[in-house]
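Hey, I was hoping to borrow your eyes for a little while. I've dropped the whole record in just underneath, so have a look:

——
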Amino acid sequence: MRTVVVLIVCFLSLSVFAEQQSIKLSAEQIDNLGIKLGKLQSVTSAPLLEAPAQVSIPAANKFFVSSSYAGLITRIYVNVGDKVNKNQLLATIKSADLLTLQRHHLSSINDLQVARADFVRDQQLHKEGVIAERRWLQTKTRYQVLMAHFNETRQLLEISGVAEQNINDLEKTRRLNSELKIISPIAGILLESNVIAGERVDALAPLFRIANLDTLWLDISIPQQHIAQVHLGDQVMVEGSGATAEIFLIAKNVDTQNQTVLVRAKVKAMQETIRLGQTVNVKISQNSTASLFKVPHSALAQSAGVTYLFVRNSGGFMAQAVHVVGRERHESIIKGNYLHAGVDIAVQGAVALKANLLGLGGDE
């Protein structure tokens, strides 16, 4: 039994020795070797991969604005790039079709007024037993039909873009107006204008394109062989920009043309550095429950297939075996036992420390 315990202790000691080896150096020797110190910085995520992406917005946030009727553009009030508010006037159109619709609506008002008078009269006569049930039903049905026709012509005016106030004015004054106002259905940015003043346009022709840019997405193309590495909630960073995003959708299909999978991330905050339609490069990183640290590439050295980080201690340095879980342009993401954020590490001079490590008995 005692032999077994001794063997276990020896095994554990060898394992710790493989992970940590001490390098004795004085302060003067450290200066002579040109070793510079820095603090070990903890991070919460590790980089996974890089991929191209395109900036997009939800379909509900973009609109083509058109006119329900053909007509002549009399004036345009906005320019491409302008910020517009909801219900803001964009342009005006003179339309003969609008006059016809207004006449139908006024006619429906007249018919309804006559039918309402008949309805009130016959309702009273029916209560008094003066008229037959059949006549009362006919009067009531005619009134209901004309009420529905009135509502129909009014809704057609609303659909055409006629403002509620203008419809009320029409019903009050009975004056026709051929001018149709084109208004913005949302608040956003005017991205496109397809008309000029004095031009005749057809019904339903697209006049303006408006987008609300409060919500930006990144449509990322991931090669299908790497899609298993990506998960909902992974973090995304746009290269050359401070924009960050979080993945909320991974498509279930593969693009047959380029064998990529659509991964969509929502930008966390409004960014002026990226724009709708822009193609960007992104880096995807994954949150980790393990303790991760970020160090310069120059802080690491390899010996016999093991990667070492050099941690400052009272006698010099401790060569700490680490595992590299990801790399960025100038830094590596590592994990390892016995590491703590804020400790002093050698950020420059790892080659000299590696030479000292090998001099203690290590082999290249």
